[in-house]
Write a structure and sequence with these properties.
Layout (H helix, E strand, L loop, with lengths): L3 E7 L43 H7 L6 E5 L19 H6 L12 E6 L2 H5 L7 H17 L4 E5 L8 H5 L9 H12 L6 E5 L1 H10 L22
Parallel strand pairs: 1-2, 1-3, 3-4, 4-5
Amino acid sequence: MERKYCLLIGISIFAVCDFWSGTGFNATGQQPTPDLPWGNPLKADGSGTGGPNWVHYITNTYNDSLVLTYNYAAGGAYIDPEGRTGEHQKLQQQILVDFTQTQWTADTSLFLIWAGVNDVIETSDEREFEEKFKELRKLLDHLHNIGARNFLLFNTAPLDRSPRGYAEANKSWIHQIQPWNENITHVAKLDKDASMFLFDTHKLFGNVMDDPSILEESAGFKNVTGFCPSCE
């Protein structure tokens, strides 16, 4: 069976719960194998309610082949416009340091990058995005230069419809969601020598919040505006 690799770099924190992408993967720990395709930790525990998160599902459930996932995502991660490493919470650390310990091949590897939630929430002026996206381009160029050819970027979910968004409706960051997503869309169109895809998280989450019954996985949702009790 041919092995395919899924390397997750980045993070999304939605105000409803803590980690959305992070699974606690240790780059120096047990590496992914056919028996444990996400490597470590042993227990699939990455959601706010103590069970598998979306990373585990795309690795072990919603696919028809062996997928080995190296998930460097970490809670609180953001793009440092200064390009610094040294903190696991920086996208630079995940790509330039943690990822260097991974063995992979270009034609069977997909790089998923989901960043922006913390950048949006902590930014009061969209002009700050210019430096962040310059740094993101540098990181993508770095991955491209070492052979990466398949990328999947995620835009930011409708944070204004989260519990925190409703509570902070008058805060300036609420108005930064659209500019951020416009920048992500622009970045996804730049590379001509690579397969660059964009997943519209904003649209998916918005549709589910409008009508949870549209998907089997979300049909049981009763509350799409308040805090999850397990996450408070």
